[in-house]
Amino acid sequence: MTYRELLNKYKSIAEEKDLEVEAIKLLILELSNYDGASFLAHFDDEIENDKLNVLLTAISKYVNDFIPVQHILGYSYFYGYKLKVSKDVLVPRCETEELVSYVLEYYDEIFKGKSVEVCDIGTGSGAISIALSKEEPKMNVTATDISKEALEIAKLNAKNNRASIKFLEGDLLEPLITNNLKFDILVSNPPYIALGDEVDPLVVKNEPHLALFAENNGMECYEKILKDASKVLNKTNIILFEHGYKQKELMINLVDKYFPNSECEVIKDLSGNDRITVIINK
Ligand SMILES: C[S@@+](CC[C@H](N)C(=O)[O-])C[C@H]1O[C@@H](n2cnc3c(N)ncnc32)[C@H](O)[C@@H]1O
Questions:
Q1: What pLDDT does residue 143 have?
Q2: How far apart (Å, rounded) are the C-alpha atoms in residues 207 and 105?
Q3: Which pLDDT tens digit goes with each residue over 227-243?
Q4: Is residue 100 within 6 Å of ligand 1 at its C-beta?
Q5: Does residue 123's CB lie within 6 angstroms of at least one atom of ligand 1?
Q6: CB 123 within 8 A of CB 91
Q7: Which of 120, 210, 276, when mutated, tests ligand 1's pocket best, judged by the most ligand atoms within 8 Å of its CB?
């Protein structure tokens, strides 16, 4: 069987099962050990038996067991950086890449050219912290998570990407308060799915529940962070949250409660859903 035949066969199966055709392409490309350009040159080569077995096993996990591609490969790409993922961390999402872009944009607006202290609350795989510290060397990033296992993965990802990040374990802002640390930018994509909300069963099956669900209509972490934020923020600061598309009003209520004098903006993601809230205190 050639790569072309393999791709065509499983493309159809993926379509029939309403799965992503791109996922099949990605599995074949990543596991063929060719880079993008040379892969095309070998598209009509017969696949060696050993390699074919590896590919068929991986594809079967996707089309028959519905395991996400990133978990099959053991890694994902975020903002161009390769990150190890496991059952202990959320696979970083493209909406979170948008969050990173906005952190960089608002940094330019408020702090351009200055060294700033940034904290990333609930870092998971380290995605946000790594992307920020690589993209803007003036950002000194501290990342926290309550999950020891997630922090192990995040530390490894930081090392593999040569990103210099300080990691602290603990509940939301608690390790920052304990260490008397102060920040100019606070960014967080905490768990925000309300208990009882309908969620894709594959997400529930494959992603850590600690990364997904939160009490109080999914708003628990935002409220706890905003309640304590002034203890860890310098006078001029920016807070940026990723949140659920139905949480705009709840978020605005929290901002009114804890930062009534701030400038606040809710931004839609590329799919047109309310997704990011930016709170600026000057
Ligand atoms: C939605 S995931 C986001 C992970 C990563 N920041 C990203 O955007 O891909 C939320 C993360 O928050 C962590 N978390 C959940 N509750 C927490 C808490 N009380 N304190 C600190 N981290 C928490 C989870 O372990 C998980 O890694």
A1: 98
A2: 30
A3: 999 999 999 999 999 99
A4: no
A5: yes
A6: no
A7: 210
* Angle between helix 21-32 and 3-16 (nearest 10): 150
Encoded tokens for 186: 């606070």
Q: How many residues does the chain have?
A: 282
Query: Six-digit token pair at 132?
Result: 């920020």
First vs last C-alpha separation in the chain: 63
Residue spans of the chain under pLDDT 50: none
Q: Closest residue (by CA) to atom 17 of ligand 1? A: 146
Q: Is the minimum distance from the CB of 70 to ligand 1 under 6 angstroms?
A: no
**Under 8 Å between Cβ of 123 and 145:** yes
What's the pTM? 0.94
Q: Which atom of ligand 1 is nearest to the CA of 174?
A: 20
Q: Is the CB of residue 124 below 6 angstroms from any atom belonging to ligand 1?
A: yes
Question: Tokens 């949250």, residue?
Answer: 241
